[in-house]
Every structure is written in C-alpha cells, then in structure tokens.
Design goal:
The chain is built from three helices and seven strands; from the N terminus they run βααββββαββ. It is an alpha/beta fold. The strands form two sheets. The protein has a five-stranded mixed sheet. A two-stranded parallel sheet has the order 1-2. The chain is elongated, with a radius of gyration of 22 Å. It starts with a strand and ends with a strand.
C-alpha cells in the first residue's frame, strides 16, 4: 500500500523513527534494567509496565518503517484543485455559512489545524479534483449529500 504524505509529514515521521530507534530504545532498556533490580519479576509491576512500553514503542517503529518504506511524497496543487495536502473548506447544502467546515485531505499521520480527512472516504474522494465554487455530491450513510467548496489552500 502506498502512503502519500506531505513532505513535512514524511520528515516528521523520519525524525520520529530515528529518535525511537536510538534514544527511545536506550531509554526503554534502562527502564527495564532499573525495574529488574526491584526483585521478583512475576510480581514486579514496574518491570511489566516497562516491557509493555517497550513493546508499544517497537510496534510504532515497525509501523513507521512500513509507512516510510511505502511513502510517496506529494506536493499540493498550485492551481487550487482539491488534492492531497490541501485544506478544503466546505459548506453542507442547507447550512448557514457560519457552519462551514475545513479539512485537510491526506494521510492519517498528517498534522494540521484542520481535521484530517482520508482521500478514500466518501466525502474525501468526492472532493478530489474540485475547486472553490464547485458543488460536489457524495453518498453518505444517511443518503446523498451535497457540499459546496468555499476555499482551498495549501497547508
């Protein structure tokens, strides 16, 4: 599976991976060693907590490796077309302009001031290729919905 990421997110994930595989592993090993010193491992809560924390960290490292190995860096469009890495402001049909909502179209690992919306979600896929002023329709669990694209911008 290809993971399409913004350049900023790709760099952040690379830095997180580097930190976890160096400093993170050292800190985890030190915590486990300190907890071992408290005696019987069967009833040593600190030891089990340190081992669990280490396991979660190793799982995150594997997740990051998978994402980074399959990563494709995408640049947001320069012409305002909704695509990956774009923040899009929409207004649902029948809503007042004050109820407009903004979303970043992208990978779940993206960080933005706007909530992240997957480009494979019903609304996300309907928005791809739209521009400000366009009205798009998509299938929602409760029927067809329409939204008007009010604005698009790069993150």
């Amino acid at each position: 599976m290809i993971h399409r990421l913004s350049r900023k997110t790709h760099e952040r994930l690379r830095e997180e991976h580097a930190d976890l595989t160096t400093r993170g592993r050292i800190v985890a090993a030190e915590k486990i060693a300190r907890a071992r010193e408290h005696g019987d491992l069967k009833e040593n809560g600190d030891y089990h907590a340190a081992k669990d924390e280490h396991g979660h960290m190793e799982a995150r490292i594997r997740q990051l490796e998978s994402i980074l190995d399959q990563a494709e860096i995408v640049e947001p469009s320069k012409d305002g077309t909704v695509g990956l890495g774009m923040i899009v402001t929409v207004l649902y049909d029948g809503d007042d302009e004050s109820m407009a909502e903004s979303y970043l179209i992208g990978h779940i690992e993206e960080i933005s001031e706007a909530p992240v919306m997957s480009p494979t979600s019903p609304l996300g896929s309907a928005l791809l290729g739209a521009k400000a002023g366009d009205v798009v329709e998509y299938d929602a669990p409760n029927g067809k919905l329409k939204v008007k694209v009010l604005e698009t911008r790069s993150q």
